[in-house]
């Protein structure tokens, strides 16, 4: 499907009144080849969602109601894991493609939804992070991890984030360990005077989650070797950082079939 200003891709945003959802909705409304057709949120307003140009789209508290009244090609979901799994299934069962930035779902659930998408001839893009700098950080880290013996990940988010570690940090640990092909060295602490001080652990990689007001999304990956360290840090200082990646996925989804996990393939990194 090739979108034009005369025949734009109809996009509905789930979590439209959330931090990222609001940013994405305004971004979609600005694009000539995309059309914001509505939004879903638990606090859906009777007055609808108003974009920067003053136009208004209706909002609903559940996705099936929206899909019944608005021509929708792609949904974008930035909600919670329990809501996202319901929204994505509803979209796929209604013949609608999906782009998902919600974290916290088990990968087995994502794979199952990917199978449903493939069976229905639809595209499903699920990414732990849509900031292009974060995607590049994760990609480069897989290359570096092959040559280092130690690795710690520290991620920073706002105090209202409900899952820990972040989807980006967890996926980073999984990918780096897989690329290395063996566990990193993680020396047990002889005396841990405060339980949990070394954070969570995956494949010898210790993961630490910081939650503070004022944070958006930040991560540093620290590699260590004999007499040397290498630190890679990525910072999203605004939710606008996710917009280019989300719009890329929205435009790509109608041409995809089944699950695309992460933006690597869309960026030509695979």
Structural key phrases:
270 residues, alpha/beta, Rossmann fold, Dihydrodipicolinate Reductase, domain 2, 2 domains, 7-stranded parallel beta sheet, 5-stranded mixed beta sheet, 26% strand
Description:
There is one protein chain. The protein has 2 domains: 9-130 and 239-261, Rossmann fold (3-Layer(aba) Sandwich); 132-236, Dihydrodipicolinate Reductase, domain 2, CATH 3.30.360. It is built from 7 helices and 14 strands. β7, α4 and β8 (123-126) form a beta-alpha-beta unit. By secondary structure, the protein is an alpha/beta fold. α3 (81-93) packs parallel to α4 (107-119) and α5 (132-145) runs parallel beside α6 (167-180). 31% of the residues lie in helices and 26% in strands. The chain has helices at 19-30, 63-69, 81-93, 107-119, 132-145, 167-180, 243-252, and strands at 9-14, 34-40, 49-50, 56-57, 59-60, 74-77, 97-100, 123-126, 150-157, 200-202, 205-211, 217-225, 228-236, 258-261. The protein starts with 8 loop residues before the first strand and ends in a 9-residue tail after the last strand.
């Amino acid at each position: 499907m090739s979108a034009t200003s005369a025949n734009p891709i109809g996009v509905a945003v789930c979590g439209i009144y959330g931090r990222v959802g609001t940013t994405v909705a305004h971004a979609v409304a600005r694009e000539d080849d995309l059309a914001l057709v509505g939004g879903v949120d638990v606090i859906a307003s009777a007055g609808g969602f108003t974009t920067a140009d003053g136009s208004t789209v209706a909002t609903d508290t559940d996705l099936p109601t929206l899909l019944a009244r608005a021509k929708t090609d792609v949904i974008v979901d930035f909600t919670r894991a329990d809501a996202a799994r319901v929204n994505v299934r509803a979209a796929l069962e209604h013949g609608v493609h999906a782009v998902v930035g919600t974290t916290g779902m088990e990968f087995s659930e994502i794979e199952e939804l990917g199978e449903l998408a493939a069976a229905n001839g639809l595209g499903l893009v699920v990414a732990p992070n849509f900031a292009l700098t974060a995607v590049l950080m994760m990609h480069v880290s897989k290359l570096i991890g092959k040559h280092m013996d130690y690795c710690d990940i520290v991620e920073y988010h706002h105090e209202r984030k409900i899952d820990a570690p972040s989807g980006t940090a967890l996926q980073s640990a999984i990918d780096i360990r897989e690329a290395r092909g063996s566990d990193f060295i993680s020396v047990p602490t002889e005396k841990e005077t405060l339980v949990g001080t070394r954070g969570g652990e995956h494949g010898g990689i210790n993961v630490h989650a910081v939650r503070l007001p004022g944070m958006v999304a930040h991560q540093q990956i620290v590699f260590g070797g004999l007499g040397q360290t290498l630190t890679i840090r990525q910072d999203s200082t605004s939710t606008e950082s996710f917009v280019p990646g989300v719009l890329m996925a929205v435009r790509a989804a109608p041409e995809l079939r089944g699950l695309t996990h992460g933006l690597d393939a869309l960026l030509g990194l695979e």
